[in-house]
């Protein structure tokens, strides 16, 4: 693992909401802490209602984690473009986040229950 990235099981149960609708809930989420950034909760893909997400053409690259694929999140209330991301083939040092999705918390609500 990169010397400035730590990944651990997130304590408790976590939920993600978009437009007031619950689109995911998990007690198997991971917490990724990177340097001085706020920790990010990564939800197992199987705990997310993938019908609410649509892959977009946007990708970004992190030198420590690899290339991220982005998703638009759609609820009955709104469409949130590129509001989620996933490292489909993360670098070996962060392999635990494979098959997990994270969300921009300025667009959706991510909270511990």
From TrEMBL:
Give one Pfam family, short name only. Answer: NTP_transf_9
The entry's protein name is DUF427 domain-containing protein
DUF427 domain mapped to chain residues: 15-105
Going by the entry's taxonomy, the superkingdom of the source organism is recorded as Bacteria
